[in-house]
Each structure stands twice: as C-alpha cells, then as structure tokens.
C-alpha cells in the first residue's frame, strides 16, 4: 500500500524536528564532561546511605564549607611557581571544582553561587591581564594567570569542569559574561594564541588540547573539539590523538618516564572520558588497541613500595597515591572491573566523587579487592615500542626486590644522559639509587620552585647515574637532540624460575665506543635470597678513561682493600659534566681478585658489591656537594670504578644483600659478605659465572645468542650442562 506523500513528509518533518530537539537537549544538558547527569543521579542516591563514597562526600563538603565564608580572592598574578598568587590560583580552581561537585550532589545553590562568584571575578580580571610578569625567567610559553601556559591549561581543565557542574544554576547574563570574558579568551589564548604549544607532542600540549577540547563540549564549539583532537589545522600532525599515538609505546610506556607519565595521565584520562561521554562513536578507549588503559596499568607497574621509579626529571616522593593516578585507577576499574585495581585504590586511600569513583567505592565496600600483581616486564620505548625499553625485574624471594634497567630512549627534554643505567630496591628501600631531578617543587626560595641550575649541571649528567662515563663526558656529549635520535637496543629480556635477565647495548653514546650491559636478578632458592649479576662490556676503537659509578644509599661500612682518605681537605673530582659537583673523599686500588665494598641501608640490611678486578682499577669514593654555593644538592655518596687508557674492558660484579642490624635490640647478624668466589668465563654465546656464597656453589649461565633462547648443551669444568632459556642457575654442590 502506498502512503500519501503529504503524510510521509509530515512524518519526516516530525521525526527531524524531534531529532533536532533531542540533539539540542543533549548539547544543553549539564554536566556533560567527566561527570554526566546519569552519574549525578547515582551519586545523589549513594550519599543517602552509609559507605566509603558517602564518607568521601562529606569530607569534601566539609573542606568546601570551611572555605566558603571567606571572601573570594582572585589576585593579580605576580609570582612564579610556589609563590602566593601562583598557589592561590591553583587553590581557586580546585575549590571551584570541588564546590561544583558538592552543588550537584547537595542541590544547594549556595555552592553554585560560590563558583559563579569566583568565575565572575576571574571574568573581570582576565581581560586586564598581559603576559605573566614572571615570564622572563623561562623560555617556555608564558601564561597570563600563571608564569607558564602549562599551568593555565591545568587551570582550564579544572575550571571548565567546575563551570559545567554549575551551568544549570547560572543566569543567561552570567553565562554570557563568563564565557565571553573568561572561558573563551582562555581557550583561544591556549590554542590559537600559542600554536607551538597546542600542536606540540608533549605533556604541555596534552593539557592544552584537553582543556580546549573540553571547553568545546561545554560551550558547544565542535570546531574546538576537532582542533583539540587533530591540530589547529586539523591535519592530524598534532593534537590529542597524535599525542596518544606518539607519546606512548604500544605497551603504554610514556617517553618521558613514570614521573611525567603520571602527570600527563590526568589530561589523557579526563579528556578521554569527556570524549566518550559526548561522542562514544569515536571509541577513544579502543584507540591503538586500548593504549590509554595500558598506560594506566603501566604507571602502576613502574612503582616500588608505592613510589614511582625516579628516572629522568623525577621528584622522588611521587607515588601511586597521586591524584592523577587515583583518577586513572578509577577509570581502569570502571572499564575492566579488574579487582586488582581495587587493591591499588585501597592503597591510594582516596575516593574521587565521580561515576567511576562511585563504582570503586561500592566494590571496596563489598570487599571485592584482590592483590594487584606486580610483574617482571620490559616496556618498549618509543611510539613503535622499538626504541629500547625500560625493564623491571622483581622477586619475592626473601623479601620484595626490584631491579630497574634502563636501555631506554632519551625521553625528550626531561630525559637524562643515563643509557644502560640501573637502580635496585630491597625490603621497601632504594639501595642502588638514582638522583632524580634537582628541584624543590614549588619552594619559591629554591629558584622559584623550578628546576635548579644543578639539574642541568649535575642531575642530568651521566656521572650522576649508575652507568659508564667515557673520558669524563656525558652520553651524546650532553646534547638532548642527538640523544633523542639515538636509542639503545634491548637485546633480550626473559623471566623464568631462576629469576630475570636482560641485556642492552648502544653504539652511539660515544663516537667509536660500544657499550653492552647484562643484568640479572637471580633467585638462590636454597639460600632464600636473591643476588644481582652485572656484566658491563666496553669496546672502543681508541684508548679511553672509563668510569663506572655506583650511587648507594646508606653508610659505608667496609672495603676489603686499603683506602687513602682525605680527612682534612677535599678536592673536586673534575671540572665539568657533573664531575665539578663531586668531592673526592678517598681512593684505593684493589689487588687482583675480588674487590668488596659494603654499606648499611636504612632498612637495617647490609649490601656488598663484589667485583672481579685485575689490579688496574682505581676506586674513587665521592660525595655530592662541590661547587654548590646555594646548597641545592643532596649530599649523597658513590664510588666510581676507574680504568685508564683502555680500548676494551669488562666490569663484572655481584650485588649481595645480607645480614641485619637492629640498634634497638642491640644485635647485628651477618654483617660480612658471604660471597667467597666469583669467576667469569665466556663460551661461544654463553656467559658462565661461578659463584660460591654461604657455603653453596653455583653456576649461572646466560645465553646471549642472537638467535634467541634456544636449547644449548655445553660443558663446564668437564661436566655436561643444558640451558633451555636465557638464564639458568645450577647448584654445583650436588654435582
């Protein structure tokens, strides 16, 4: 039967009008970013009943209530990081965001009016501002409210969410003023006003695109969203999606390291949730095989004892309880319902007030958490995952140990010149250490809270790390651009019942010099302990001075060779490349055989590095602090193994944890190293290390074949052995 054309036309117009009306309503509905109307309904219901979400809500409400009686303060910008005006503006965006959440859950318009008043105060101030007066201290793009535009973007990410949360309580006049005189100018300043930052594949660009894109969703500016996703010219050469593609490896490792990974996680997580809530057809959480979810998990894995591994420019006190990862874990649990994430949420001890936070809170209240599994893993570096890797080895034998090995890429401007370095952790403490960043974050008296000059002159230099220095110069001669173009190679990584082993190499850190290092975290089951094997091979076309530092945390206890110690006057070890910051406190030259250095860590355990030496190595004992007139550097210690005029050299060492020191109960156990024999031989592609320790004799075999971990039969001292993987340990007592 044919339907009359007029009826069809009328029906089509009705459906079209309904669709347009529905579309308009969807656009007009607020909140519509991270927290949606559906979330709000569930959250309002939740706070009527006891539980951890309700507890978190009333705690937040109390904090906001404490601030609301005070006048709104929106000061004229003056200070750099850590100064009063800087911190006030940070506090303001957090207050607006929190008050917006309390408004949505309480429906008390007093909270919305508080946000409105602050937004109007900013709308009055912002048009009067020039670039920040403290901008001259840095070359980075300046902001107006803040000394760098990065902070301005962070302000927008929080403020646009606050605005979204109180939008339905605002008058049309207020909306017009706030948008035209504040939010729109800020968004345009951070995008069209600073294209080099907005289009940059860098965490600064991530924050900028997230803030502008979210503003686009709230203020019905789809063009802003497109530019945020694809670059200002929408070419795809920059923008949020390009950042997801370039800044993370396929395994979810962020090129600048875990400290900046957790910082960049917030805009990635926040904007991605806003994208999914507004345009689920983009399937943002499926992008690059779910790389964002992998990034959240990788951030957790790159921690020990609740703190992130402090490679590159890292503040060593940052850990998994950072608010960025709290949001990340809530998102990860919401997407996967993996009970391991609830374990991390419990350790974080924070419930965020969002739909995802509500899911976490309910699951924790039901006792659904299961232990999160920290694993031995190699995280490929670079967008293709082939620019080296960051390797984490772990063991639970005799306590919790972790070894971090870094045959990873440079890490952009925040990277350090530390190819093939390592760090070691045991029983909750850092044992073989990395300096991290030279910075007192937001401590104005310390260079305005910014990176100190010593970050460049010491912390980034190779001698500040546990890797090889040639002729007292840093890798790539300290050139970041060259470093970014040359990454190490991860030769192999394997974990099995014997432990974990990895090998990496680089040929371009120094002209004509090949560096190759193999590290293994080895389980000695009979002794219920682990040891670290370190084999560092250096080959060069010409003769060089080779320095191999080891930075340790603790008190030097003993050496098995004599030291000549400077007790009355100290001298500086060198003149540049970080050496100018090292006091030479003493030196010694061990006889051929085994050289031992022992120290006591704050965890009450002793550690001994036993090394094979031929009588040609000098040990230099150093302390940081020379040429430091403002006392900016920590006075940490190291010893440097030095050989001179060498084309080739092999450093072979075993790190051995042992004993216990308990001053409260006044006892000391096993303060002396139990390792009595260490021998190294090479047999084709096999590295064979014989160890005698605590009365046990072991043979450690490492298969370094380029073809992979194929089964190999071999002889050692006339006895047959077989190895099926990269690493094997044989107890010789029974043979």
From TrEMBL:
Cell compartments where the protein resides: Periplasm
One Gene Ontology cellular component: periplasmic space
InterPro entries: Alginate_lyase_dom (IPR008397), Chondroitin_lyas (IPR008929), Hepar_II_III_C (IPR012480)
Molecular-function annotations in GO: lyase activity
Superkingdom: Bacteria
Residue ranges constituting the Alginate lyase domain according to the UniProt record: 57-301
Principal cellular location given in the protein's record: periplasm
Keywords from the UniProt entry: Lyase, Periplasm, Signal
Every Heparinase II/III-like C-terminal domain range: 382-604
Signal peptide segment: 1-28
Name this polypeptide is given: Alginate lyase family protein
Organism of origin: Bowmanella dokdonensis
Lineage, top ranks: Bacteria, Pseudomonadati, Pseudomonadota, Gammaproteobacteria, Alteromonadales
């Amino acid at each position: 039967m044919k339907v009359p054309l007029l009826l069809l036309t009328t029906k089509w117009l009705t459906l079209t009008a309904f669709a347009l009306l529905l579309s308009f309503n969807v656009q007009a509905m607020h909140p519509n970013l991270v927290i949606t109307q559906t979330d709000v309904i569930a959250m309002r219901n939740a706070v009527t009943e006891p539980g951890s979400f309700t507890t978190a809500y009333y705690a937040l409400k109390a904090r906001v209530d404490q601030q609301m009686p005070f006048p709104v303060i929106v000061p004229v910008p003056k200070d750099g990081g850590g100064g009063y005006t800087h911190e006030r503006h940070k506090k303001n965006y957090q207050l607006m965001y929190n008050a917006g959440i309390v408004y949505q859950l309480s429906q008390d318009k007093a909270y919305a009016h508080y946000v409105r008043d602050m937004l109007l105060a900013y709308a009055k101030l912002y048009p009067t501002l020039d670039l920040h007066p403290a901008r001259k201290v840095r070359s980075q793009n300046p902001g107006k409210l803040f000394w760098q535009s990065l902070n301005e973007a962070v302000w927008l990410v929080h403020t646009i969410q606050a605005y979204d949360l109180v939008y339905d309580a605002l008058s049309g006049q207020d909306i017009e003023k706030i948008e035209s005189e504040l939010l729109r100018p800020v968004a345009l300043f951070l995008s069209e006003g600073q294209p080099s930052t907005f289009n940059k594949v860098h965490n600064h660009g991530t924050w900028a695109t997230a803030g502008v894109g979210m503003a686009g969703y709230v203020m019905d500016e789809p063009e802003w969203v497109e530019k945020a996703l694809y670059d200002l010219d929408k070419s795809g050469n920059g923008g949020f999606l390009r950042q997801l593609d370039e800044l993370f490896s396929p395994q979810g490792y962020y090129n600048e390291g875990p400290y900046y990974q957790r910082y960049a996680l917030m805009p990635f997580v926040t904007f991605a949730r806003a994208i999914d809530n507004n345009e689920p057809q983009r399937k943002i959480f499926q992008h690059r095989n779910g790389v964002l979810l992998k990034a959240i998990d990788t951030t957790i894995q790159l921690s020990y004892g609740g703190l992130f591994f402090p490679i590159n420019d890292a503040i060593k006190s940052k850990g998994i309880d950072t608010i960025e990862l709290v949001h990340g874990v809530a998102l990860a649990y919401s997407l996967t319902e993996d009970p391991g994430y609830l374990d991390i949420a419990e350790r974080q001890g924070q419930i965020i007030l969002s739909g995802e936070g509500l899911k976490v809170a309910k699951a924790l209240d039901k006792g659904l958490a299961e232990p999160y599994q920290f694993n031995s893993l190699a995280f490929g570096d670079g967008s293709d995952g082939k620019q080296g890797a960051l390797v984490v080895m772990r063991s639970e034998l005799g306590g919790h140990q972790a070894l971090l090995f870094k045959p990873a890429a440079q890490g952009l401007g925040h990277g350090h010149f530390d190819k093939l370095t390592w760090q070691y952790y045991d029983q909750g403490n850092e044992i073989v250490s990395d300096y991290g960043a030279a910075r007192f974050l937001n401590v104005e008296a310390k260079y305005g809270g910014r990176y100190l000059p010593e970050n460049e002159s010491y912390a980034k230099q190779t001698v500040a790390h546990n890797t090889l220095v040639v002729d007292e110069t840093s890798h790539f001669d300290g050139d970041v651009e060259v470093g970014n173009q040359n990454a190490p190679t991860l030769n192999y990584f394997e974990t099995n019942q014997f432990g974990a082993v990895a090998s990496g190499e680089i040929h371009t850190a120094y002209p004509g010099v090949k560096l190759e290092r193999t590290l293994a975290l080895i389980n000695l089951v009979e002794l219920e302990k682990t040891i670290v094997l370190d084999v560092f091979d250096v080959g060069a076309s010409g003769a060089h001075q080779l320095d191999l530092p080891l930075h340790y945390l603790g008190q030097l206890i003993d050496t098995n060779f004599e030291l000549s110690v400077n007790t009355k006057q100290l001298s500086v070890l060198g003149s540049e490349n970080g050496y100018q910051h090292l006091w030479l406190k003493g030196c010694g030259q061990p006889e051929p055989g085994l050289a031992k250095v022992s120290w006591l860590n704050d965890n009450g355990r002793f550690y001994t590095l036993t090394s094979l030496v031929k009588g040609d190595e000098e040990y230099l004992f150093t302390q940081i602090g020379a040429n430091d007139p403002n006392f900016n550097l920590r006075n940490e210690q190291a010893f440097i193994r030095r050989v001179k005029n060498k084309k080739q050299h092999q450093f072979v060492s075993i790190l051995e944890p042992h004993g216990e020191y308990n001053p409260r109960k006044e006892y000391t156990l096993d303060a002396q190293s139990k390792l009595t024999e260490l021998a190294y031989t090479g047999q084709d592609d096999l590295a064979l290390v014989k160890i005698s320790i605590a009365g046990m004799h072991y043979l450690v075999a490492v298969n370094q074949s380029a073809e992979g971990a194929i089964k190999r039969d071999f002889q050692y001292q006339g006895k047959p052995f077989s190895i099926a993987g990269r690493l094997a340990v044989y107890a010789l007592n029974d043979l």
